[in-house]
Amino acid sequence: MGVVTSTVTSVALAGSAQSPKTGYEVGSYRYSNYAEVQNSPSPYYPNDVVATGHVEAKTNVPTGYMGLKTELYYEGNLCKAQDWYYNKDSAAGLETSSQKNCGAGNYYATGKTAAYSFGEYKIYEITNTPKLYGGANSFTITSSSTSSESTNKGDSSFPKNKNGETYGSAENVASGSKPDLIKAIGVDGTLGYVRAKDLDTKMPEKPEEAISKQRSLAEESYREIKLYDENGEKEIGTFRISQKPDNVKETKKN
């Protein structure tokens, strides 16, 4: 059974912001996770904003025991998402990064981590980073005609569509309380909603399965999910989820 503890420190710098660390214990291993958001330091992508997820262990853990997925939000809308990535070697640290420019405005990073123990992966939320201003208006967002009444006030009292599904922004929402339809920016800049269940894939049953699938994926591969109107019926576009991070770093303790 997992034990969770949280630190209360938060770091915000001129070009970056970091979430508080959350600690948890799974099996015989102790972990912590956190996220960072920063303006891209790359001269090739100067307008991008980078979301980086981190998971750290007190000691080296076996291959595939740590999983990590990262999400980047722009003005409360899901801007970019990355599927689960697992440590491919024995390691004490894993970080993955995804980056994109969805326009000039406020961004934050968040995500989830997974830890393997006794035949299953236990999942833990990463606390949202503070907001960071970044991006550029070279990316044009267009609203669908049915997506104007979807702003969440941060109290998790989401409106419901005609089918009884909740919809809105996932910003400032407690773990497990996200709406059925999450506000997101599609491939072509269309603003709509993705189903929360479509953002996740079935968790592997063991580390060997996780690593096998991971190795089978090509670099820069992605999967597409449907972008809907607020009723979750009309398909108005697509949203791409990266199946491999833009950057990966694993660290090992001597």
Keywords:
20 strands; 2 helices; 254 residues; 8-stranded mixed sheet; mainly beta; single chain; 8-stranded antiparallel sheet
Q: Determine the strand fraction and express it as a percent band.
A: over 45%
Count of runs of 4 or more consecutive helical residues: 2
Spatial shape: globular
SSE pattern: EEEEEEEEEEEEEEEEEHHEEE
pLDDT below 50 for ≥5 consecutive residues: which ranges?
5-13, 146-155
> What class would the helix/strand composition place it in?
mainly beta
Number of strands: 20
Overall mean pLDDT:
89
Terminal CA distance reads 28 Å
Give the proportion of residues in helices.
under 10%
The main pleated sheet reads as:
8 strands, antiparallel
Q: Mind telling me the C-alpha Rg? A: 18 Å
Textual characterization of the structure:
By secondary structure, the protein is mainly beta. The protein is built from two helices and 20 strands. The strands form three sheets. Strands 1, 2, 3, 4, 5, 6, 10 and 20 form an eight-stranded antiparallel sheet that branches. The protein starts with a strand and ends with a strand. About 7% of the residues have low confidence.
Layout of helices and strands, plus pairs?
Layout: E1 3-6, E2 11-12, E3 16-18, E4 22-26, E5 29-39, E6 49-61, E7 66-74, E8 77-82, E9 85-86, E10 91-100, E11 105-117, E12 120-126, E13 132-134, E14 142-143, E15 167-168, E16 181-185, E17 190-195, H1 196-199, H2 207-216, E18 222-228, E19 235-242, E20 247-251
Parallel strand pairs: 8-19, 14-17, 15-16
Antiparallel strand pairs: 1-4, 2-3, 3-5, 4-5, 5-6, 6-10, 7-8, 7-9, 7-11, 10-20, 11-12, 11-13, 16-17, 18-19
